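Thread: quick sanity check before group meeting

JM: Hey all, I'm pulling together slides for Thursday and realized we never actually wrote out the predicted structure for the chain we discussed last week. Dropping the sequence here so it's in one place. If anyone has concerns about the input, flag it before I start.
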Amino acid sequence: MSIPEATLSAEREGLCPDCDGYGNIIENGVARPCHCRIERELTERLTVARIPERYRHCSLDNFSTDSHERERDLKAMRWALKEMLGKPGRGIYIHGEHGVGKTHLAVAILRELVKQGKSGVYYNVVDLLDQMRDSMRAESGPGAQQLLGFHMDWEVLLLDDLGVQRASPWVVERLHAIVNARYESNRVLIITSNKTLEAATANLNRAITSRLREMCIVYAMQAQEDYRNRLAEKSAVPEKPRRGRRRNSEDE
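JM (edit): ok, ran it. Output follows.
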């Protein structure tokens, strides 16, 4: 069977051969999105999600399970993802030691939710607060309230490293505003921290703790070993054994 000329022309021009670059496929008089359009829109949503370069590859499938603890962490995250997909507004609070894979898993869940058609964005807590603080000081540009509204527009918000910021009255006010806005709009909040929920919010206020406990699955990472240290040990160049100095007649 010969290949249609339209398909050959589309391939030559770098267009999708299935839809000739239109983005839709007509079947029985009904239009449905072509796979190329779905993939393109997913790529665009992931691009605007602000996921740092180091974590853009992160998925549940490539999370290392080289210990029983990490296997349990992955299994728990797969269960949590199903819960979040089945319950609108359900989020997750992941806490554990440094280097155990919290951010990897949080980004992996964010990516999976984006694949389901949701809009999502990543922010390190300190960077987000700095951005809001700078916007207040600037003579032009969006104010902190406008910036807060911008962040609330996302269906999924990932806040990385909660609890490392200094709990000044302004910080408490901003974090309360963020959490409360997500709470009232029933929107997903994903949080990572190296502290338990109570410890991370001890210097904030009870309202934040209470809302997060209601909004989020609270999960303590089972893995304790810093995975970065293990990778560093594997990549380290072994030291050459020192040779003893040869004795000669002058040494005797």
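AS: nice. The chain has a mean pLDDT of 82. Residues 77 and 196 are 17 Å apart (CA to CA).
JM: adding both to the slides.
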